[in-house]
MerR family transcriptional regulator
Amino acid sequence: MGRAAEMLGTTPGFLRSLDEVKLIEPQRSRGGHRRYSRHQLRIAARVRELVDRGTGLDAACRIVTLEDQLREARELNEKLSPPPEQEYPPLRGV
């Protein structure tokens, strides 16, 4: 955790707080050390950025959660949308 905190320019306590509110739940090594994925580190960095700008921790976590949900929805929408050449022709007489 110390290395991850150092990479983000924050404290281990900040990362623990994100774990406590269940925003990010890192895997654990056999020795019990937290192991963060790159995605989790990006989330933590975004929360840190919002907190540094004066946003409360709870609000920052909610914002990041909503941003992540929006990104996933956009990706799914793009995946399910037909390519432009397969769009349906306009209906006549409607």
